[in-house]
Write a structure and sequence with these properties.
The protein is mainly α. It is built from 17 helices and no strands. Helix 4 packs parallel to helix 17 and helix 6 packs parallel to helix 8.
């Protein structure tokens, strides 16, 4: 059952989820609570010999569930954010589940894995780990402070890897999946601002400018490509609205999206239709695409208020939000293990930590 089925689109796009009912909160928590303890099926890694059969929970005792590491991480983010923002009907259950995962011993083993595998989950998983740390830092709760302290060694490790293995790359990856550079930079930038890590903030904004300042005439008609869950064009613009002043961003956006004001680019302004009854796992990425496009579009609309682009983006955001939330509450594990986080991101985009 979809707990947002009867919620109007304007309310969904309001960004604070003040309207959240117990039914909605249970719906948003159900899959993450179950997922962080679900070890199989799991993405795993390359099996190099018959003896190479290490269980995910042995390598990643904190973040082994939800099919892959990054989904386990942002499922924890999803749960922590719900506890911070709402009087949650499953408060005790969620706290117990997180407390069992985020132990000093488990985090120490996660750090040890990155010591041996420094490019693991670069950089999508790193961005979500830093979002989790930022969320804990925003939450004025004694248990959140304990979890943040336990997570600190991994947070510090990921910050170092971001500086050494991500911000040093010589070109951006403009893809609609996990290796997208702009999306990862967005997560790191939000983290840096929430935690007041000014040198990191400066490094991220400098990288964003180096990579994207001169972009123009983006070929939005080529999107989506394959089973995207991000729009390369929109996540780049969503990053740059965080970097520029409003006037600077308006000028940049006019060059980046010059034809959208004149042409009906359905490929980027219209949501992708997804038959969730027959879609395979990869196709459910398109549900996430509609959700992520919705939060990008409404953020861009806010930044471009009173500009013709802003109006078009706001109208498009409404269509994407409606389509995304209508399809997101699937029982298919290929979608359910991650889509709740994307729904929550959209619903709570104004509630701190996002575009900070």
């Amino acid at each position: 059952m979809n707990p947002l089925a009867d919620t109007d689109t304007e309310t969904i796009l309001s960004g604070t989820a003040d309207f959240a009912s117990s039914e909605l909160l249970r719906g948003l928590a159900a899959y993450p609570v179950a997922g962080i303890e679900t070890e199989y099926p799991h993405h795993g890694g390359a099996v190099e010999s018959p003896e190479d059969t290490t269980r995910p929970s042995e390598e990643h005792p904190a973040f082994y569930g939800c099919f892959d590491w990054h989904s386990a991480v942002h499922s924890h983010w999803c749960l922590v954010r719900q506890l911070r923002l709402f009087d949650h009907p499953q408060d005790e259950e969620i706290r117990a589940a997180i407390d069992e995962r985020l132990t000093p011993e488990n985090v120490e083993q996660e750090v040890a894995y990155f010591d041996e595998n420094p490019t693991f989950e670069r950089a999508y998983g790193w961005a979500w780990l830093l979002r989790l740390a930022a969320e804990l830092s925003l939450w004025e709760d004694p248990q959140a402070a304990v979890w943040r302290e336990r997570l600190d060694p991994l947070e510090s490790k990921i910050c170092s890897l971001v500086e050494q293995e991500f911000l040093t790359q010589d070109r951006p990856f403009r893809v609609g999946t996990h290796h997208n550079t702009a999306f990862a930079l967005t997560g790191v930038l939000d983290y840096a601002r929430v935690t007041d890590e000014q040198p990191l903030e400066t490094a991220v904004t400098d990288t964003a400018m180096d990579f994207f300042e001169d972009d123009c005439d983006y070929p939005v008609e080529y999107e989506p490509i394959g089973w995207d869950f991000l729009s390369p064009a929109l996540v780049e613009a969503d990053l740059m609205r965080r970097v520029y002043s409003q006037k600077e961003f308006t000028d940049w956006a006019e060059d980046f999206f010059p034809d959208i004001r004149r042409s009906p680019y359905e490929s980027i302004l219209e949501p992708v239709s997804v038959d969730t009854e027959s879609a395979d796992g990869a196709a459910l990425h398109l549900v996430g695409l509609n959700l992520s496009k919705a939060w990008c579009l409404i953020g861009l609309a806010d930044a471009l208020e009173s500009h013709p682009l802003g109006e078009r983006f706001a109208e498009s955001a409404a269509r994407h939000a409606r389509s995304g939330v209508d399809d997101a509450f699937t029982d298919d594990y290929a979608g359910s293990h991650w889509l709740s986080s994307f729904v929550l991101y959209l619903l709570t985009r104004r509630a701190g930590g996002i575009a900070a």
